[in-house]
Design brief:
Layout (H helix, E strand, L loop, with lengths): L1 E6 L7 H12 L3 E6 L9 H11 L4 E5 L5 H11 L6 E4 L1 H5 L1 H4 L5 E3 L4 H12 L10 E5 L2 E4 L22 E4 L5 E3 L8 E4 L2 E2 L9 H8 L8 E2 L2 H14 L5 E4 L9 H14 L4 E5 L6 H10 L1 E9 L3 H7 L6 H12 L5 E8 L6 H13 L4 E7 L7 H8 L31 H9 L2 E3 L3 E2 L2 E2 L3 H4 L2 H9 L2 H27 L5 H5 L6 H4 L3
Helix pairs in contact: 1-6, 8-9, 9-10, 15-18
C-alpha cells in the first residue's frame, strides 16, 4: 500500500515518524514523507495544494504532531479530508489529549505507532474494518472511543533503523513548493536516541503520563543494547558525512547502569569516533559514568536542574533532587574542563515564590564556573499532571491558555499569558543569567551586582514598579536572539562543535581530537 506521512512539527529529525516509515517499508509498503511544519505554524495556499496532490496518490495518510503544531495538524487534516482517504493522527498530542483530536481525523493513534500503522495498512489492503485496532481512538456518535493499548515494543534492537533513505521525502520551501529533503544529508549534527521512556516522574513532563497509559503493558524505559546502539551510530555516521557530532536525545543518557556505559564507551570510542552531546539528571551523574563517557567522546552535557528550590522540585515538579546532589554532579563534571556543561532551568513558573527564586539564584551562584545556563519558560502541556493541577488551582482554564503553543526555548516572554507575570523582576533576572557564566558574571549579569539586585528592598521596589523587570526581560530576550544567530554563524564556519565555546575561551580542543 502507498502511505503518505506528514510531519506538522517544525522538526525534520522526527525519529517517531521515520521509525513508522521504516516499519511500514519493512512490511512491504511504500511510504512518502512530507515535512510541512515551520516555526510560524502557517502554510501558504500553494503548500496545501501541493500536499493535497501528493497525498491523493496514497491509500492512507498519517499526520504526526506534538501539541505546538496541533493547530497546523488540524488545518492539514481539514484540507485533506475531501480526498476521502483514511486519515490517522499520531504523536504525543493525540496520545495525551485525544479529546482535542478525535473529531478531526478518522482515527487517532495513542502511543507507539509502528505496530499500529503496519496493522492498519494491512487491514486497509485486505479491505477489512479497522476501528478496533489497538491504540486507536475515534469518534462515535459524538463520543470519544478509545481502544486498548498494545504492549510496548520491548526490544528496541529489533526495530528497523529510522527511515533516512531520502527517497520520497519532501519539505516545503518558502513559496510552498515541495522540494526534496536530501540536503539534510549535509546536517552538521546527528540527532538520535537509543532508548524510549524515562525513569523520572516529573509532573511537567509527558513521560509520567505515558507511564500511566502503558501501565501493565511492559517495561516503560527501554534501551537498545550497547552493541546495537553503536552499530546504529556507525550507520548514521555514514549517512551524514558532514556531521561533526551526535546529539543523543535519550531522556537521561546517564540513567544506564555502569556496565552498559562501560560497554558503550568501549565500542563507541573504537568505531564511531564522533563527539557526542547528551542529557543527564544530576542524581545519575557519577565519577565512573562521567569518566567512561568522556573517554567515549562526550563533549557537551545538558543537566536538568529545573529549580534551586527544593520545595518546588519536590512539591510541584515531583523531582526531588536536592541542591547538594546538583552541586556534587557539577563538581564531577567540572573535573573535565574541556566538556561544555549546560544547566537547564525552568522559569516563568507561577508556583514559584520569591523565596524559591532566590534559592535558585543562590544555587546558580554556587555552581562551579565556567558553565552555561539555558532557561526554559514553563508550559503546561495538556495531559500532564502539572496541567491538571494548574487547572484545578485556577491558574489556567484549559488548553487554550496553558501555553502549549509557546516555543519555550525562545526566552522568557511574560506577555504570552497573564500567569507568567508573577515575580516578573526575579524571573527576568534569571532569564538574564542565561548563557555563559564565569567567575565574574552569570550570563549577562556581573556577579558583584547580585547582592544588590536581590536585596529585599530592591525586590520590593521592583515588585511594585515593573519598569526594571520589563526592561530586564526585553534585554534578556534580545541577548538570546543575538546569541542564537551568532551560534548559527559560528557553527557554519567551524567544523569543531566546540568552536563557539573555544572562541569564548572556555574549553580546549579535545573534542575534535577524538575524531582523528
Ligand atoms: C527527542 C525529543 C526532541 C528532539 C527531537 C524531536 C523529534 N521530533 O524527533 C528535539 C530536541 C529537537 C525536540 C524539540 C522539541 N520538543 Co521534544 N522531545 C523529545 C523527546 C525526549 C523524545 C521524542 C522521541 O523522539 N521519541 C521517540 C519516538 C520514537 O517517539 P515519538 O516521537 O513519540 O513517536 C512515536 C509515537 O508518538 C507515534 N507517532 C508519532 N507520530 C505519529 C504519526 C502517526 C500517523 C502515527 C500513527 C503515530 C505517530 O509513533 C511513534 C513511534 O512509535 C520527547 C519526550 C517524549 N517522551 O516523547 C520530547 C517531547 C516530544 N518534546 C516536547 C517539546 C515541547 C518540544 C519542543 C516543542 C520544545 C520547544 N522548542 O519549545 C521542540 C519542538 C521541535 C519542533 N521544532 O517541532 C514535548 C512535547 C509535549 C507536547 N505535548 O507537545 C515532549 C513530549 C517532552 C515533554 N515536555 O513532555 N524534542
Amino acid at each position: 500500500m502507498h502511505i503518505t506521512l506528514i510531519c506538522a512539527d517544525a522538526e525534520r529529525w522526527a525519529l517517531g515518524m521515520r521509525s513508522i516509515s521504516a516499519s511500514l517499508k519493512a512490511a512491504g509498503h511504500h511510504t512518502r514523507m512530507i515535512f510541512a511544519g515551520n516555526e510560524g505554524g502557517q502554510l501558504k495556499q500553494r503548500a496545501f495544494e501541493n500536499i493535497r496532490s501528493v497525498s491523493e496518490q496514497s491509500g492512507l495518510i498519517g499526520i504526526s504532531s506534538m501539541s505546538r503544531a496541533s493547530g497546523l495538524a488540524k488545518t492539514l487534516i481539514a484540507d485533506l479530508r475531501p480526498l476521502q482517504k483514511p486519515i490517522v493522527w499520531g504523536g504525543i498530542h493525540p496520545t495525551l489529549f485525544p479529546e482535542d483530536c478525535v473529531s478531526h481525523a478518522d482515527l487517532i493513534c495513542r502511543g507507539d505507532g509502528e505496530g499500529f500503522m503496519v496493522e492498519l495498512a494491512e487491514r486497509l489492503t485486505s479491505g477489512r474494518s479497522y476501528r478496533d485496532i489497538r491504540n486507536a481512538g475515534y469518534e462515535e456518535n459524538g463520543q470519544l472511543a478509545l481502544n486498548e493499548i498494545r504492549p510496548l515494543i520491548d526490544n528496541l534492537d529489533l526495530l528497523p533503523m529510522p527511515d533516512f533513505a531520502f527517497e520520497e521525502e519532501y519539505r516545503l520551501d518558502e513559496q510552498g513548493n515541495l522540494v526534496p529533503n536530501a540536503s539534510m544529508r549535509e546536517a552538521s549534527s546527528i540527532l538520535f536516541m537509543g532508548s524510549r521512556g524515562c525513569v523520572c516522574n516529573c509532573h511537567y513532563c509527558s513521560n509520567t503520563r505515558l507511564k500511566d497509559l502503558y501501565a501493565g503493558k511492559g517495561r516503560f524505559t527501554r534501551k537498545m543494547s550497547p552493541a546495537k546502539f553503536v552499530e546504529s551510530a556507525c550507520v548514521f555516521r555514514e549517512m551524514f558525512p558532514a556531521a561533526r557530532y551526535f546529539y543523543f536525545t535519550d531522556e537521561d543518557f546517564f540513567a544506564r547502569p555502569v556496565a552498559e556505559i562501560e560497554k558503550f564507551s568501549e565500542l563507541y570510542s573504537k568505531t564511531v569516533k564522533l563527539p557526542f552531546e547528551c542529557m543527564a539528571s544530576p542524581q545519575q551523574i557519577t565519577e565512573k559514568k562521567m569518566a567512561l563517557l568522556v573517554k567515549a567522546g562526550l563533549w557537551r552535557i545538558d543537566v536538568g536542574v529545573e529549580s534551586g528550590s527544593e520545595r518546588v522540585k519536590k512539591e510541584i515538579f515531583n523531582r526531588p533532587v536536592t541542591n547538594n546532589t546538583v552541586l556534587e554532579a557539577a563538581g564531577i563534571i567540572n573535573r573535565y574542563p574541556h566538556v561544555v556543561v549546560y544547566y537547564f532551568l525552568i522559569i516563568g513558573n507561577p508556583y514559584e515564590q520569591r523565596e524559591d527564586l532566590l534559592k535558585t539564584v543562590e544555587l546558580l551562584r554556587g555552581l562551579p564556573a565556567p558553565h552555561f545556563l539555558r532557561t526554559y519558560s514553563l508550559v503546561f502541556f495538556p495531559g500532564t499532571h502539572l496541567f491538571e493541577r494548574a487547572r484545578r488551582d485556577g491558574i489556567i482554564s484549559g488548553p487554550e491558555n496553558s501555553g502549549y503553543e509557546i516555543d519555550f526555548m525562545a526566552g522568557f516572554d511574560y506577555r504570552t499569558h497573564p500567569w507568567k507575570k508573577r515575580d516578573l523582576y526575579l524571573n527576568s533576572l534569571l532569564a538574564l543569567m542565561t548563557g555563559k557564566s564565569t567567575s565574574f558574571r552569570l550570563g549577562s549579569l556581573p556577579r558583584f551586582l547580585l547582592p544588590l539586585l536581590t536585596f529585599p528592598r530592591m525586590i520590593d521596589l521592583n515588585d511594585r514598579c515593573h519598569a526594571i523587570g520589563k526592561f530586564a526581560n526585553s534585554l534578556a530576550r534580545g541577548v538570546l536572539r543575538v546569541r542564537r544567530k551568532g551560534l548559527v554563524v559560528v557553527s557554519k564556519i567551524f567544523r569543531d562543535p566546540s568552536s563557539a565555546y573555544n572562541l569564548a575561551g572556555v574549553i580546549g580542543k579535545r573534542a575534535l581530537r577524538i575524531r582523528s
